[in-house]
Amino acid sequence: MKIKARYCGLVILVLLTSAQILFAQQTNEQQATITVNLKTETGEMKPIWAWFGHDEPNYTYMKDGRKLLTELAALSPVPVHMRVHNLLNTGNGEAALKWGSTNAYTEDANGKPVYNWHLVDSIFDTYIKRGMKPYAQIGFMPEALSTHPEPYRHYWQPGHDYNEVYTGWAYPPKDYDKWEELIYQWVKHEVAKYGKKEVESWYWEVWNEPNIGYWKGTMPEFFKLYDYAAHGVKRALPTAKVGGPEVAGGSSPGGMKFLRAFIEHCITGTNYVTGKTGSPLDVISFHAKGQPAVVDGHVRMNMAPQLRDIREGFKIVASHPQTKNIPIVIGESDPEGCAACGMATNPSNAYRNGTMYSSYTAASFAREYLLADSLQVNFMGAVSWSFEFEDQPWFYGFRDLATNGVDKPVLNVFRMLGMMRGKRVEVKANQMFSVESVADSSVRGARTDIGGLAAKDKNTATLMVWNYHDDDLQNAGKPVQINIKDLPGKTVTLTQYRIDQQYSNSYEVWKKMGSPQKPTTAQIQELEKAGQLQMVGKPEKLTVKSGRVQTEITLPRQAVALLKLNW
């Protein structure tokens, strides 16, 4: 009887497994459909994506830096926020990978502070002239204030030990009063230069990733650093907004533990400056990163750690009644951690030049909106830690938006997002992975993630669609049926934009040129044109029947499309 029972159990198991395989095959083969319900609003189409950052502040005012900032300002319906490291570093302003300096603070022979705002002004002027906003990072430690000033400047290069980066600038101040006075003088200078109203519209944040090598002090010492910095900000401008702690995410040592402790210090801790309870906290920030790897000769992305970090950070903020409504900025939100590590030294970063980076960006931002909705937090922005690297090899595989002044495919995702206005509306997609599924195991297996993010404004509707998979492989994709419901009027004009191997892709054009490292003037012009967001065909008029329009697109794997309807 036991043998028969085991045999029957085995048969049932085999039948169940076969049914599951058959179901998976049927699911994979069925028509992909996306339905947009324009009447069902889900939230504001808040431009959480209009935040960017980078390590090298001196690139800001260089030729390609200015060009890219002009493009970022132009594509966004709101002021773009810029976050950069090294704004208080001592040095001559020379730009290098993961390094920058402004020489804002030095001391004379008698130890008296000397303030020099020339290079800081050059950086902030570049933003303000374009209608952008500094997400002003208070860091790092000037050489004259560091408790361990030597060695001070690093000369790190890709492929070297990352710990070489953490030199004298990462240490606590030898005099916290001088540190507070430096921040006071800085904010006071900005108010005098740009006006109280302008500086009130900025956010100031203290330091970067204090739970790892960027901070060579203890956790209590960081809280002390924060209290003195925040005190300096508020002393110069009581209505200024300041926050932190910009911890590295949960996959880094103690990230979320540090975030919890920091919030508790700001709520109930003893302020190191005043001796009173609590510290100013106007914005809360933490970081979230994915983890790509090379598998079977190609890059395999992993969005799960990034989404888990975001979910956990949101939950921590929402768990305190004092902080649940405070604006949250994901201070770095990226597929992995090192922007300056090119694909030559880090093969897993080879996704950055082509359409994998753009499809990942579209699919991940959509989930960030959904996570914020589900946890009901005040999600203000997610910083893409990607800018440009001046005078570096063409398409070297840095995590950047442009190479030598030529836009990469990923920048066109932000151009698409910039066209999405008004209210977000309900999207139902039968082959879109749930947030929970992606946070658990990313997008693996036979099926790709075909999903959408939609918005409506007064006389327009927009739908971003992607065909994403963790494995950086290409294929022709599949047809996707698009259904738009609750449209007014009798006709709409449909315009489609695309990022794939053929459209909006300077990298593919560059490869077809033979991958030149010294392209001609004519080739550069061709690459610049290929780097812009491109339309598929021409706008077409569609008939609205009973408030509905149906169309079909074929979306290759790792492609992103934007459908814009006007009426």
TrEMBL record:
Signal peptide: 1-24
Domain of life of the source: Bacteria
Keyword Acetylation included in the entry's annotation: no
Residue stretches making up the Glycosyl hydrolases family 39 N-terminal catalytic domain: 103-531
UniProt keyword Signal, yes or no: yes
InterPro entries: GH (IPR017853), GH39_cat (IPR049166), Glyco_hydro_39 (IPR000514), Glycosyl_Hydrolase_39 (IPR051923)
Listed Pfam families: Glyco_hydro_39
Sorted UniProt keywords: Glycosidase, Hydrolase, Signal
Family: Belongs to the glycosyl hydrolase 39 family.
Protein name: Beta-xylosidase
Source organism of the structure: Mucilaginibacter sabulilitoris
